[in-house]
Design brief:
21% of the residues lie in helices and 38% in strands. It has 3 helices and 8 strands, in the order αααββββββββ. The strands form 2 sheets. It has a 5-stranded antiparallel β-sheet, with no helix packed on it. It has a 3-stranded antiparallel β-sheet with strand order 4-7-8, with no helix packed on it.
């Protein structure tokens, strides 16, 4: 019988590990890239049924929720030009301005500015959402009454964004599974 150690990998495991990978991919497709998390009761049942520690299984499913954080970050390359947008929407005492889009060969960078009365509390982080594009937040900076968020969008946005809607959605959680119902749409 072959044994596994920290320095070796039993080749008899290749087929099983490949099936695990195939099941993970199938799960991702079924859940539409929103992995969710089994209830504590379900995890306890599985832990008992399959002889695993409850905490181990919980950590396994927690890791699957965080898969998007392990996706490679796109670094825009080959700057082409700016697309000036300068569209502003007022919502809840805040001004949301889509100032410009920087076009690159492999991506676009969308710049969102938020301005508010300094005495108000800042909003929670918002994400640019569009199902036909991959949107990653590059960073957010700000001070009292002003915030600037940068989003990397792939593939690159079209040159003519007229009629294109940019929807910025707010979430309760870092996993972006629980929308608050708040969103702002800026028309291109």
């Amino acid at each position: 019988m072959s044994k596994c150690s920290s320095n070796s990998y039993d080749l008899k495991l290749v087929a099983i590990d490949e099936q695990i990978c195939a099941l993970l991919q199938q799960r991702k497709e079924v859940c539409s890239h929103t992995p969710g998390f089994p209830s504590d009761e379900i995890i306890s049942e599985w832990a008992q049924q399959y002889g695993f520690d409850h905490t181990f299984l919980a950590m396994f499913f927690h890791l699957m929720r965080r898969e998007k954080y392990y996706n490679p970050k796109v670094e825009p390359t080959g700057f082409r030009h700016y697309i000036p947008v300068l569209q502003t929407v007022e919502k809840g005492g805040r001004l949301y301005t889509l100032s410009s889009i920087r076009q690159y060969e492999n991506a676009s960078i969308v710049q969102l500015l938020v301005d508010w009365d300094e005495q108000q509390e800042p909003e929670q982080t918002i994400q640019l959402i569009d199902e036909s594009y991959e949107c990653q937040i590059r960073g957010t900076r700000g001070s009292n009454g002003h915030e600037s968020s940068t989003f990397i969008v792939t593939p690159p946005l079209p040159e003519d964004i007229q009629g294109f809607d940019f929807v910025f959605t707010q979430y309760e959680d870092v996993f972006e599974e629980k929308p608050t119902g708040w969103a702002v749409t800026i028309h291109g």
